[in-house]
Design goal:
The protein is α+β, with helices and mostly antiparallel strands. It has 8 helices and 17 strands. The protein is globular.
């Protein structure tokens, strides 16, 4: 900027120039035209729709933070790290000797962990809680071994993965007539020694495993005819005592008042739709139709704690975020172990994984992704779309989409034989069951 000197004694004043009338008219007309143009431009801009981000393009809309979970430590696929909310306890079951069955997942609960500042792992895959329990669906008879504890699909057990590094808690309940007392005593004599834990009721007998691996501690709590094996990897001795105290109190309460396992519910501000439970899609009749035998009284259920967030490609090439909740369930057609007995058929098992999206498009894209990478794909006329294929482990799998749900089913995992190793044959065998599931999903989602 140039500054002019202010010391001017006699400044020269220039007289105003006279403008001709014609030139003035031209200037006025030009100004009016400019003004009109500006008004038109403003009107056009006001009538243009405001730019809006495509639905689902903002990942943050699917994120929700909870106490005990640090967002920077969570996987990018995690939306709400603890959307799982177990509902009210279901009706309890009594054994044939009229004693109340004590569900393992009721011995130590999510609330018990929260009291000790222990938080369940945040995972959108159904791996955080795995539980085996009697749900009143299966009708196969129980045939416990006199000297061997149940270890897999016919054990009353619950396993929790914790958010703390490598942390977990496992509970297995043994009580007659589901488990022979001789089997429990044999295990105690070989692997346990009596011990004491502060704060326990005098009615509780406590044993500690002498063969645990580093970082793990297993206790056996005995209260009356109930024995509860509690496996801990939490790294806190104070919390260990507190959890054992809570476990013993819960067992004594459950012995007096029969209670079943709490159903898995999900409650998140980022996921407003209902979630289908895989275990609800498998009845005794379903297992009997597939195998010729009743289903085991025990069911295996695996739960995710978190909502999942996935970026998927739409048909027009754009990308959007969708969220989902997943759980899985297994049912056998009998007690475990008959496959090891000479002359008897192997136990047969149906695995079902249920994925609930908030809208159909998320499920459509998810199915399209599976179809794109499917090996040995065999089309099936089930639901909105379905196919059979070999998964990454070489297992014949059937997947169907009905509305906003994707259901995957595997029959006789690792034991697919007698023709069922053929993808087309397996797809044909599972199609009637899959059609039944698709019909149930349509009813489930009505009005939701």
């Amino acid at each position: 900027m140039d500054l002019q000197p202010s010391d001017q004694q006699n400044p020269e004043v220039q007289p105003p120039q006279k403008t001709s009338s014609k030139k003035l008219v031209v200037i006025i007309v030009a100004a009016i035209i400019v003004m009109i143009g500006c008004v038109v431009a403003v009107v056009l801009l006001m009538n243009q729709p405001a730019p809006v981000a495509p639905a689902g393009s903002d990942r943050s809309a699917f994120l929700y933070d909870r106490p005990g979970y640090n967002r920077k430590d969570l996987a990018s696929s995690i939306g709400d790290p603890m959307a799982l909310s177990l509902g009210r306890l279901a009706a309890g079951f009594k054994a044939t000797n009229s004693t109340n069955i004590v569900p393992a997942c009721n011995v130590l609960t999510i609330d018990d962990f929260t009291q000790q500042k222990l938080y369940l792992g945040a995972n959108s895959l159904p791996t955080v809680i795995t539980r085996t329990y009697i749900d009143g669906v299966g009708k196969a008879p129980l045939d416990p071994s006199e000297y061997t504890l149940p270890s897999t699909g016919d054990a009353n057990k619950c396993f929790y993965t914790l958010e703390q590094s490598d942390g977990f808690v496992g509970v297995t309940v043994y009580q007659p007539p589901l488990v022979a007392n001789g089997a429990v005593q044999d295990t105690l004599s070989r692997s346990y020694a009596p011990t004491t834990v502060a704060g326990l009721d005098s009615a509780v007998r406590v044993f500690k495993n002498t063969k645990n691996r580093d970082g793990e501690t297993t206790y056996m709590l005995q209260i009356g005819d109930v024995s509860a094996e509690v496996l801990l990897r939490i790294g806190q001795s104070k919390a260990t005592d507190s959890l054992l105290q809570l476990a013993s109190k819960n067992i004594m309460s459950l012995q007096k008042n029969a209670q079943g396992v709490a159903p898995a519910n999900y409650n998140s501000p980022t996921f407003k739709k209902s979630v289908v439970r895989a275990c609800d899609l498998m009845s005794n009749d379903d297992i009997k139709s597939l195998t010729g035998n009743d289903a085991s009284q025990f069911v295996d259920e695996s739960l995710a704690t978190a909502t999942g967030v996935v970026s998927q490609a739409n048909s027009d090439g754009s990308f959007q975020y969708y969220n989902y909740i997943q759980n899985s369930c297994d049912r056998y057609n009998s007690g475990i172990g008959s496959g090891l007995v000479r002359g008897q058929a192997f136990d047969q098992k149906l695995d079902v994984t249920a994925t609930s999206f908030q809208d159909d498009q998320g499920a459509k894209n998810g199915f399209a992704s599976t179809k794109k990478g499917a090996a040995n794909a065999v089309a099936a006329k089930v639901g909105d779309e379905a196919l059979g294929y070999k998964d990454s482990a070489g297992q014949n799998t059937m997947v169907l989409r009905q509305g906003r749900f994707i259901i995957e089913m595997v029959f006789n995992r690792t034991l697919q034989r007698n023709g069922l190793e053929n993808t087309a044959t397996m797809t044909e065998k599972l199609t009637p069951y899959a059609q039944s599931v698709a019909g149930r999903l349509k009813e489930f989602d009505k009005g939701l």
